[in-house]
Amino acid sequence: MGTLGIVGLGLIGGSLGLAIKRAEPVDTTIIGYDRKPDVANRALQAKAVDRLVPEIEDLAKEATLIIVATPIISMRKVFETMAPYLRPNVVVTDTASTKSEVLRWARDLLPRNVHFVGGHPMAGKEKSGPQAAEASLFEGRTYCIVPGMDAGPGAVQKVLDIVAAVGAVSHFMDADEHDSYAAAISHVPLVASLALFNLAHDTQAWPELAAMTGPGFRDLTRLASGQPEMAHDIFLTNQANIIHWLDRYIGELMRLAEAIAGDDGEGLFRKLVEIQMERDSFLENPPKRDRPEVSSEVDIPGAGETFMHMMAGNLWRQRANEIMKTMEDRQAARKLEERMRRRE
Amino acid sequence: MGTLGIVGLGLIGGSLGLAIKRAEPVDTTIIGYDRKPDVANRALQAKAVDRLVPEIEDLAKEATLIIVATPIISMRKVFETMAPYLRPNVVVTDTASTKSEVLRWARDLLPRNVHFVGGHPMAGKEKSGPQAAEASLFEGRTYCIVPGMDAGPGAVQKVLDIVAAVGAVSHFMDADEHDSYAAAISHVPLVASLALFNLAHDTQAWPELAAMTGPGFRDLTRLASGQPEMAHDIFLTNQANIIHWLDRYIGELMRLAEAIAGDDGEGLFRKLVEIQMERDSFLENPPKRDRPEVSSEVDIPGAGETFMHMMAGNLWRQRANEIMKTMEDRQAARKLEERMRRRE
Predict the structure, then answer these.
(1) Residue B34 to residue B13: CA distance in whole angstroms
(2) What is the chain A residue with the closest CA to B123?
(3) Does chain A have fewer CB atoms within 10 Å around its N or its C terminus?
(4) What sign results for the dihedral spanned by CA atoms B53, B152, B158, B175?
(5) Which residues in chain A touch residue B195, judged by CB atoms under 8 angstroms apart?
(6) Does one domain contain both B183 and B274?
(7) According to the model, what pLDDT value does residue A295 have?
(8) What is the pLDDT of residue A297?
């Protein structure tokens, strides 16, 4: 790989260094820079990089392949600082969670003879910094690749070599597609997690609620403990997509609320069985990535769906009698109470 | 403990049996019943119970302490079936995730000389059945105790002995309080999880989205793989509370959406820092459970809050310059684009 430069040596930058070194690519030297000296020194001690350089400019002058793994908002400044010093035909990639703005900055700020290939490893944890870095962070993870307009196939291949070295699976997309999809499966879950924590925390009863929490609450609010810088930068650079998907998410919640408040116990149960089955099949056998040639607005139920309706139906019938009885009893109890009240 | 009877030998019933036997209480025999013979046999093989009884009536006749660990909706029927056969002064407890309906059924259906003490161990996992049972399931978990109106202190103590034997921490509440709080920290997270899975799954782009998912999406949708029966019964027996807290949850989401869509980057960042700090302090040092004697509608910021505002402010200042520059550039770029458009 030649001289690989990593700018930003926190969780992602540090883990990439460790993972690449573990793969032992021939003739590769990793040089690193972080604007925080303690972060840089920790990464060096952990052997995530072979040596440190004192300034971004030094890294730009020397590296033939550069990974920018700083917070998103800082990337703009990093590109600007590196630009005058970059070698001709150098390949620059990044690790930002949003891609449209970053690709725009790269296009506007980097020289034309620089190949920019956007990257986004779908990995992370709520702990940050080089002390949380690990070589196995990317194993089996999806690694989105969003080549810039001027990136040649050779440049893309160099980034694919990194993806392979760290054990991840590459996934080509364009920037708009990436940012919309990332909003749905990553940024809205983050907002959902923040809101769930707030919901419980911003009440007089919080001490009571906190004492009652189990593993469900902890898992569902895990993302609320992520770096606020990261959340902030994601929100700032993907506003429109996040608002769009949040709106749809609120719609989903309202539909579920209606089903919960409604009288159609069978419909509710059927829906719950379907969601469980679909999620289990997603875990066991993730859907293949192939775009249908013709996209149809009319949803025709496939064989799978029919099977699921049947399964849900059978499970339902087993429970229907019990539930019916309960409903009848509850109604009877209510009528009785009403009659008692009227007598008083 | 004498003869302990467990009705329902799935994840919770089976785990309680294993955990109680591990504690080796003197002079205790555990007898078990499950209406599904394979579930019953599996629990016996796993030594979660000492022996099985063929009918609920047999268990009712023999046991001096009974744990009902069936699905919530089935408990009504279990109480009804057991009622004529129960020994005088027997203690009956349950493990349901909602308490108001269950306590009502116990009051209406069990004889007056039976002591009912509602229970709810805040433990579980998305896998169900006796094969998922484990003795350590309740270790360190909160175990809510909701005594029925006619339960004497001796009866409550017997249930506390079980809580201690399985390594859990008891937490007294009344049924309405329990169901409201459980809606906030357990049932709304469940709905949030179901809705997040639906959001991504119910789109044409699902294969694309699925391929991109990382650990965040998996964790946040974990509860969607729970038993549909359990979700259904929770929703059916806690409708009003869930709707109330879902409404507040949607309010939280809308407030976050506003902050994300708005121009106040500092306010957004400050909010994110506060949530992260509050969640971290919740994990490290959960708030003590003490109800303030006077509950005030006016929130006066405490010392902690002021400290957090200060911390958030400092972190913010470090980033403000970078972000300001980015904003200015973006605005400049937009203005440039507009000017270009007007020229065309």
Answers:
(1) 10
(2) A214
(3) C
(4) positive
(5) 249, 252-253, 256
(6) yes
(7) 39
(8) 40
Average pLDDT over residues A209-227: 92
Please state whether beta strands A142-147 and A169-172 pair in parallel, antiparallel, or not at all (unpaired): parallel
Provide the residue range defining the domain that includes B272.
179-286+300-330
- The per-residue pLDDT for A319 is 58
Name every chain A residue with its beta carbon within 8 A of the beta carbon of B104: 333
Q: How many CB pairs under 8 A join A and B?
A: 333
Residues B147 and B191 in one domain: no
Question: B292 in a domain, yes or no?
Answer: no
A321 contacts on B by Cβ (under 8 Å): none
Instruction: Answer whether A139 touches B (CB < 8 Å).
Output: no
Total domains present in chain A: 3
- Boundary-marking domain end, from A126, A155, A173: A173
**Which residues on B lie below 8 Å from A141 (Cβ)?**
214
Say which CATH number the domain at B43 has: 3.40.50.720
User: Is residue A154 located within the same domain as residue A213?
Assistant: no
Collect all residues with Cβ–Cβ distance below 8 Å to A18 and sequence separation of at least 6: A46, A47, A48, A133, A134, A135
Indicate whether this model's pTM tops 0.90: no
The answer to whether the CB atoms of B289 and A207 lie below 8 A apart is: yes
Share of chain A above pLDDT 70, in %: 83
Q: By the 8 A CB rule, do B239 and B203 touch?
A: no
- Decide if pLDDT at A63 tops 70: yes
Domain boundary among B173, B189, B205: B173
Which residues does A97 contact at the CB level (< 8 Å), separation at least 6?
A72, A120, A182, A186, A187, A230, A233, A234
Residue B232 lies in a domain: yes
A306 within some domain: yes
Looking at chain A from residue 300 to 339, which residues have their Cβ under 8 Å from any Cβ of chain B? 312, 315, 319, 322-323, 325-326, 329-330, 333
Token pair in block for residue B34: 């499950």
CATH code of residue B192: 1.10.3660.10
Residue B213 with chain A: CB contacts under 8 Å: 122, 142, 185-186
The Cα angle at residue A206 between residues A246 and A124, in degrees rounded to 5: 45
**pLDDT tens for residues B274-308?**
999 999 989 988 776 654 433 334 444 445 555 55
Strands across the sheet containing B65-68: B51-52, B28-33, B2-7, B65-68, B91-94, B115-121, B142-147, B169-172
CB-CB: which of B193, B199, B249 is closest to A199? B249
pLDDT band at residue A194 under the 50/70/90 scheme: very high
Question: Please, what is the Cα angle at A271 between A265 and A272, to 5 degrees?
Answer: 90
Pairing verdict, β A51-52 and A28-33: parallel
Distance from CA of B281 to the nearest CA of A (A): 10
- Do residue B75 and residue B57 come from a single domain? yes
The answer to whether A73 faces chain B, any CB pair under 8 Å, is: yes
**Residue A296 resides in a domain:** no
Which is it for strands A65-68 and A91-94: parallel, antiparallel or unpaired? Answer: parallel
Residue of B nearest to A240 (CA): B261
Q: Which of A36, A30, A33 is nearest to A17 (CA)?
A: A30
Instruction: Work out the angle at residue A291's Cα, subtended by the Cα atoms of residues A289 and A296, and round it to the nearest 5 degrees.
Output: 135
Helical ranges in chain B per DSSP H? 11-22, 37-45, 56-62, 72-82, 100-109, 153-165, 175-182, 188-201, 206-212, 215-220, 228-237, 239-261, 265-284, 303-343
Q: ipTM higher than 0.85?
A: no
Q: CB–CB of B287 and A206 under 8 A? A: yes
Query: Considering only A2-16, A328-342, B233-247, which range has the smallest mean pLDDT?
Result: A328-342
